[in-house]
Amino acid sequence: MFWQMLLAFGLSFLVTAFLALLFARPGINLIVDRFVKRLLQDPYPENLAEMYNVFKKVGVQNVVEADLRANDGEPLKRPFGSPIHFSDWDQLLFNPVYLSRRPIEESVSIDTSVTIGPLAKRPLEIDLPIMIGGMAYGFGPSLRAKLALAKGVDLVNTATNTGVGPFLPEERKYTKRLIIQYNRGNWGKEEEVLRQADMIEVQLGYGALGPAPVVLDAEDISEEFREYMKLRPGTELKLDSTLDGITTKRALTGLVDYLKKVTNGVPVGVKIGATHYLEKELDILVGAGVDFVTIDGAEGGINFGPAILADDCGLPTLPALCRAAAYFQKNRLDKKVSLIISGGLFNPGQFLKAIALGADAVYIGTIAMLVIAHLQVSKTIPWEPPTELVYERGKFKDELDIEKGALNIANYLKSCKEEMVLALRSMGRTSLAELTLKDLCALTPDISSMTRTELGLYAPMLASEGTND
Amino acid sequence: MTDLLLVFLSSLLGLLIAGVVVGFFFLKKITKEICMAKNLKRISNWLLMFTKLDWRNYIETMLRAEEGKSIARPFGTPIRHFSWNKIQFNPVYLSKTPLDDVEVNTEIVLGPRAKQPLKLEIPILLAGMAYGSALSLRSHQALGGAAKQVGSVLNFGNGVFLPEMRRETDKFVLQIPRAYWSREPEIWQQVDLIEIGLGHSAWASAPIRIDGYRVSPDFADRIKAIPGLDLEIHSNLPENTSFKELKQFVQDIKAASGGKPVGFKFGCSHYIERELEKMIEAGADVIFFDGNEGGTHGSPPLFQDHFGLPLLPGLCRAAKFMRDNQLCGKVSLVVGGGLSTPGDFLKCLALGADAVIVGTIAVLSMVSSQVTKTLPWEPPTEIVYHGAQKEDSFDYQLGGQHLSNYLESCLCEMKELTKILGKTRLTDLNKNDLVALDPIYAQIAEIECIY
What we know:
CATH topology of the largest domain in chain B: TIM Barrel
Order of helices and strands of chain B: HHHEEEEHEEHEEHEHEHEHHEHEHHEHE
Number of domains of chain B: 2
CATH superfamily of the largest domain in chain A: Aldolase class I
Number of helices of chain A: 16
Largest sheet of chain A: 8 strands, parallel
Helix content of chain B: 40-55%
Distance between the termini of chain A: 78 Å
Distance between the termini of chain B: 58 Å
Largest interface: A-B, 86 and 86 residues
CATH topology of the largest domain in chain A: TIM Barrel
Oligomer: heterodimer
Shape of chain A: globular
Strand content of chain A: 5-15%
Number of domains of chain A: 2
Strand order of the largest sheet of chain A: 4-13-12-11-10-7-6-5
CATH architecture of the largest domain in chain B: Alpha-Beta Barrel
Radius of gyration of chain A: 26 Å
Number of strands of chain B: 15
């Protein structure tokens, strides 16, 4: 049978080849001619070119999403967050030095470690300023993905975050530095859980969702996940838009103090999505005595959120970071409260720029999920995106190899760190703490005034020149 | 061979046509299938993933996940901040007389203050592309052949001086790397210009480790290194223990080489004025730099995309510095980075550069039709790198001919343009011959805007 099929295939191949060789030129000519004639002759409303116009005007993404809305009649559950690139990181460039200052030799070691919550009793020390952001088991990643992340970050001595999901004893076992999110739901708040944290992040919202309530329907909850949550079948999960009872500064202060006490002094902070009322929010947060603030820009990823909240809400990462950093500087919070930034950060250049602009560390999310899938995507492509391998609702979630995933995320972070070290050397800086706005220049006047960096298009004014070193 | 390929391609075409025919009949069904919610979701997910994260970011991320160390991207950054097309030349009709039958003078002098300045027939220099760790010997023979034919100069980059190249070419630039080799006065005497390499845009001043397997045995032998061992290029020049020492080093080179011009090579940055000040104080006769568009054999994307300054503002700032300090005609300015057309070259000259450097485009034009030897499975560069599979199949005489043709062609066009500007020497071009199409370009270059 096999040989017959092979023979048939071979023969048809040869025949097609022969025919094609014979008729290729006239054939192509005929087809192209007819196509062009149609394109140039058909009345516009019937013309194929109209399709091009429509897609160009509306956008392919919008056409597909409109069809999806037409199918379901429900808010769009869009993965990854907004595809819009709001923050123009490319318009900022680092300033290497050659003779004006000395680059750092290889014999001098470069310090990329960061302390989060320096005033806390038990601050969190990480070896590199990149942590895995809050992605909740069950809501987004699968158990295997969470464990791969936990194992991977442990190899490079940084931290991972539980997200709003349940506390996973396995995750705790795999990693030395676990950030536990204090969520807006009603689970995971037992003292024995909180005591296991190395840092606690009170979760008030996302960049891509704002403080919107999140509902996970009963049918979207897998059995395994339900067991971890100790839920009855048929019940849904809900994150409210506010933390239960925490709507005032006083209440928040009480919560922060409580968490510090329960955990015996790990850093306690709050995560918010970026908004134009940033300074007001920061006033309240800092007033409540937090050890760190996490700001998630509008480009932040999310698993299945309504498109309108991702595209049309909140402040992009870059301006949010610049404003928060300016606020920290004005209020002299630099070495007291740590600033963590997240949202649409994908490469070490962006991480380093965020740090030069005033962040203490960054969270990565989407990119980390893609990294743990790495070569294992061959199990899902070409019909499904790689995320099917790492999401709880993905078809291939059981096929993810934890060891490989852990190694890949560790490799990715190592590679980023190595490049950042090289970058610091060529800027003549021996540690991340020495990196400042003076190490950046902007290529457009807008970005220059937003980031408070010098404009690279012209020679610096004499007055500011002295301050550069 | 070609017939076989044609048959293969034709059969593919045949299958494609068959597919189209079948598709035509089932078009409605297929469209309907696509519009089903689950398929739409798939499409939407793919679209989202690659609009949020472009494919280059994705691939580089995966390379990092695989290798666990800094990755090396060849050719330099794909980001272009400024376009040379936003600046135009101003032809003259009656306001001044366009020239016809005169020969345009393209000669330049590099390092006019030196005892033995370097005279070149064209203002286009070949970039320093390291022999031994990047380009192969054959490639250097081709580059050298072309340089001799058009009157340019060959540069060995981080590599080492090859005395036998005398057969191919007659003018050399020697780069003094931030390592231990190329320090012999006998070599300095044999070359025509000495360039102290402080860095280049694609690597800034970061230390570079050249993996042992990339170092050719011949190169290792010439620098008395052990073949197969990694080579280190440091972040600082070993002689630069203090600025005084560096100054002394420059004086030593000048004395020992018999007055050859000494230049500094670096990658352009926001601190460019202060770098220039130091270099000129140290005794530089020529300044070489490239904008952040500059190419490389391979360097971390972080340096390519996020470091330095693009060539246009860099060149304009450097030229202004030269004018403000009365250094024009004393210290030469040679720039490069992403330049690929004669128009780009001429615009740089008019903006104040004395010469331009070509790297990537020179290699591509050198390979020219010989790409067929590597395509379709390997990029064309596989033929010019040392240690590449097809290294030996490179015909260096043909390559040299192609490169010199390219340079001649560029030069001809530059001459044509110079004539319709009413000028007889390339060195006569200045900013008044230019106009900007965009106000920001006008401000950067201090030229007039079209409106």
